[in-house]
Amino acid sequence: MSLTELQAPTAGGTRTFVVGPYLTRRPDRSAPFPGSGDNIEVVRDTDARIDEAVGLARAIDLDVIKPIVINLDAVRPSTYIGKGRVEEIAEAVEDDEIGLVVVDCALSPVQQRNLEKAWKVKVIDRTGLILEIFGNRAHTREGTLQVELAHLGYQKSRLVRSWTHLERQRGGFGFLGGPGETQIEADRRIIQERMTRIERDLEGVKRTRSLHRESRKRVPYPVVALVGYTNAGKSTLFNRLSAAEVMAEDMLFATLDPTARAVKLPHGGKAILSDTVGFISDLPTTLVAAFRATLEDVIEADVLLHVRDVSHIDTQAQASDVNEILRELGINPDSPHIIEVWNKGDLLDEAAHERLLTIAASRPADNRPVLISAVTGEGVGTLLTVIENRIAQGRRVYLVNLEPSEGALLSWLYEETEVLERRADTEGHLAVVVRIAPEKEPRLLNRFPDARTIR
Question: What cofactor is needed (predicted)?
Fold first, then answer.
């Protein structure tokens, strides 16, 4: 396959089959729900898997004619699926005038080439499909560069010696290569040169983001980052917490470029809320690496909100996938700065809703999930309080006494601290209980030398 062919985009509206070749394994339904699933092998529900694959295809406007589930005992090295099923699909492709087949697995270059020969249409695997979606959704310069970098890495791996024209000898044309260089070698070198340029450009973007983070630290506001499986409701929750207007649709990968907004906490403090790209099972390693710069807000966040769709049949498997990607980013999923947010409580029946509330209440306070609905607002107030308390761990609490005439100092307390309590006597003297970030303590004590630590 040539470089030009590889770079051709997948056209929206193309008549498409989505093939799900899944190894036959029995799910372990005895595991406690919901949980991380990290200590057991989590097997996904087949119907949920093919539905997700169809959703991915429709996310780039492909016209999915039919999903096809194939239960496999073993993977065939040459075509991934068995010869008989390959022939059946070939007939269906011709009968239904299909222009593209999406195979919901990671195909080797040889398997992809063999299936394209058998079906006489373009074939893309799960990795290629996710890259297509990311290519359509990236809008910022950083997002576009990261997608292109990941796409080029994928294309480079697809350059196999599949047709004789790739073996043609090229003459010397400057950077195009000297005598004896084959077309495939020239294509690989062109890709590598482009990847090197993108990596250099991304370093510049990364430095700019680093400067922005440093300026935020000087403010300073803590960073609260949203992570979770794609379509778990992160952007809807982001909008609910920050009153922003981020795209929030029932669509896989609706959010790609990172977005940050200020959010006010219950006692007057502020935090920077950061929305991120949704994670997904079998996320290409090239994308995890390419998006590491975007996910630096996640890596450096003071609090992580792991948003889960607890109404989804595969919520446990999805949580396991997210935790695995967090580990790849060097984050311990069991860290105390991670809060599990059990979203879409409005989609549960009453019995399931009460059961999850009971399960959450039984967890230790520092590891207790919060059941919410980002759509209705249920539990959001509790979530903000939990976020505030998690940020406040290690912060000192002071008692400050004010005279009735010291209104400017009272205003300063509301601007720079969290006012937890305020009491006034009959003569207007104020006793104010505040919590403050460590870096602001010297300024507090400079203004209020008689301030007393109470915890």
Answer: Mg(2+)
Preceding peptide of 258 cis, ω within 30°: no
Burial of 426 per CB tally in 10 Å (0-12, 13-18, 19+):
exposed
Round to whole Å and give the CA distance between 316 and 48.
12
> pTM, whole model, 2 decimals?
0.75
144 is in an annotated binding site: no
* 276 marked as part of a ligand binding site: yes
Distance between CA atoms of 417 and 129, rounded to whole angstroms?
48
- The verdict on whether residue 120 carries a ligand-binding annotation is no
CB-count exposure of residue 56 (10 Å: 0-12, 13-18, 19+): buried
Beta bridge partners of 181: 170
The pLDDT of residue 80: 97
| Residue 257 counted as an annotated binding residue | yes
Exposure letters 231-265 (e unless 16+ CB within 10 A, then b): bbbbbbbbbbbbebebebeebbbbbbbbbbbebeb
* SS3 label, residue 69: strand
Is 264 known as a binding-site position?
no
Residue in 381, 343, 332, 389 with CA at minimum distance from that of residue 365: 389
Task: Say if residue 232 carries a ligand binding annotation.
Answer: yes
Helix (H, G, I), strand (E, B) or coil at 229: strand
Going through 372-429 in order, the beta strands assigned E by DSSP cover 396-402, 418-424
Return the SS3 of 434: strand
Distance CA 136, CA 133 (A): 5
Pairing of strands 100-103, 15-23: parallel
pLDDT value for 31: 47
> Cβ(264)–Cβ(215) under 8 Å?
no
- The answer on whether 343 is annotated among ligand-binding residues is yes
The full set of domains in the chain, from first to last, is 3-131 (3.40.50.11060), 138-203 (no CATH), 221-392 (3.40.50.300), 396-453 (3.30.70)
Q: How many CB atoms lie within 10 A of CB 349?
A: 9
H-helix or E-strand spanning residue 142: helix 141-158
CA distance 338 to 361: 17
**How many C-alpha atoms does 405 have within 13 Å on its Cβ side?**
0
What are the 10-residue block averages of pLDDT along the chain, 455 residues in total?
50 89 66 46 82 92 95 95 96 96 94 96 92 78 82 80 37 38 78 91 79 63 89 91 62 56 86 83 69 69 94 93 88 92 96 95 91 96 94 90 93 91 91 91 93 90
Residue 8: CB atoms within 10 Å: 9
> Is the separation of the CB atoms in 118 and 107 below 8 Å?
no
